[in-house]
Amino acid sequence: MEGKTMKYILIIGDGMADYPVNDLNGKTPLQVANHPYMDEIVSKGICGTLKTIPKGMQANTDVAILPILGYNPKKLSVGRGPLEAASMGVRIDEDEIILRCNLITEKDGLLLDYSAGHITTPEAKKLIESVDSLLGRRGEISFYNGVSYRHLLVLKGKGYSDKINCFPPHDVMNTDITKIMVKPTTKDGNKTATLLNNLILRSKEILRDNPVNKERVKAGKNPANMIWPWGQGKKPKFVTLQERFHIKGVVISAVDVIKGMGVYAGMDVINVPGATGYVDTNYEGKAAYALESLKDHDFVLVHVEAPDEAGHTGDSALKIKTIQDLDRRLIGRIMSNLRGDYTIAVLADHMTPVATRTHAADPVPFAMYSTINELKSRITHFDEESVKKASYEIKRGHRFLSIFLDYGLMKK
Predict the structure, then answer these.
(1) Can you name the residues that pair with 370 across neighbouring β-strands?
(2) Whole-number percent of the chain with pLDDT over 70
(3) What is the DSSP string of 157-177?
(4) 287 lies in the same domain as 299
(5) Could you tell me if 366 and 245 lie in one domain?
(6) Is residue 157 domain-shared with residue 50, that is, in the same domain?
(7) Is 222 helix (H, G, I), strand (E, B) or coil?
(8) What pLDDT band is residue 410 in, cutting at 50, 70 and 90?
(9) Of 203, 233, 263, which one is at a domain's C-terminal end?
(10) How far, in Å, CA of 162 to CA of 233, rounded?
(11) What is the pLDDT of residues 297-309, one digit of tens each?
C-alpha cells in the first residue's frame, strides 16, 4: 500500500480489556497474551486509559463506540436497533421504534444462552421468518433477519414508545425470565412493554416445535426457542466525520451495530467474506481489505468482536487466543504491509471480564503510534496496568478521535 499522505488505522478489540483472573495467577488476558505488534505500538508511541462509558450510562457496545468516533453519548442518544437497521439496509421512518431482537435459549424458566449456541444464519433465517409470519402485523410489527442470533424488530404506529427498559440478554444469563421482562420507564411505554412481553412469550410457543430446533436438540445444540427484544431507539441524526474532520473513512466489522454507526457517520462499509463476529472470524481478510481501502480512504476503523464473545463465555484461555489472533493475524499483517506515513491505534471499547461475563464501564487501555512522531516509550507491554504508568487519562471519551487525528500530524 503506497501513500504520500497520512493514513489512519484504528483497531478495536471489542471487550478485550479485563480484570485480573484467578486462573491466570491474578493477571488479565492482555497481560498473559503474546502480542508483539500491540507492544510495538505502545513502545513507539503514547498510551494511557480512555473512559468510553459516561457516568450513569450502561456499558453497551453502541455507547462505547460512539465516543471513540468522536460522538458524545450523553448528547447523541442512539439505540442499538436503529444502528443495526442502517447496516442491514432496513429503511426506517421517524415514527418507528427499532429494537435488536436476539434468538435466545430459554430452559426451565431461565435465560440460558443469549446466542442460542451461536446459531447459524440459515437456521436463524427460517426461525425469524416463522416468527414474522405468525406474530408480525403488516405495517405495524415486522421482524427482519440478520446474522446468526442477531435480528431486528420494528414497531410502527400510534402509541409505541422507546420509554421502556429492556435487559441485554448477555447481561442476564441464568436469570428467571419473569424478573427481566420489558418494563416501562414512563406511562408512555406501557403499551410497548405489554406488546413486547406478549411477543416474547408467544414466540416460545412458535419456536419450540420448529423443525430447526428439533434438529438442534437432536444434535445436542441449544435451541433458539424464544425471541428477546432490546436496544430500542428511533432514527438518529449524525454529523458525519467528513463534515467534522474532513476525512474519508471506512468501517470493517462483522457486527451490524458497528457498521450501522459507520453508515450514520458517513463512512463506507466493507463486508469481508468470512467475517463472523465470533472467534472464527476472518482476521486475514479484514487486514487485506483494510490495506486495500487505504488506497482511496484517509481513515479505516477495523473492529473485531472475538474477545468480547470469549469474555461472555467466561473462557480466559479463549480470550487470550482471540487477542493473540487479533495481534498476529490482523494487526501484524497490516503493519507489515503499510507504506508511507501512517498513524495506528489499538484499544478496547469496554471491558468484558471473564469473571462476570458481561460488560463493565471501567476505563480501557489504548496506544497509538505515528511514523512521523516515533518515540521511545518506557512502556513496552500493552495491557491494562502497564498503560497506567503513562498517566495519560482521557476522561472524556469523545475527545479520543481528535487526539488520534492530531497525533498523526504532530511533529516530534
Answers:
(1) 343
(2) 98
(3) STT--S-EE---GGGSTT-BG
(4) yes
(5) yes
(6) no
(7) coil
(8) low
(9) 233
(10) 6
(11) 999 999 999 999 9
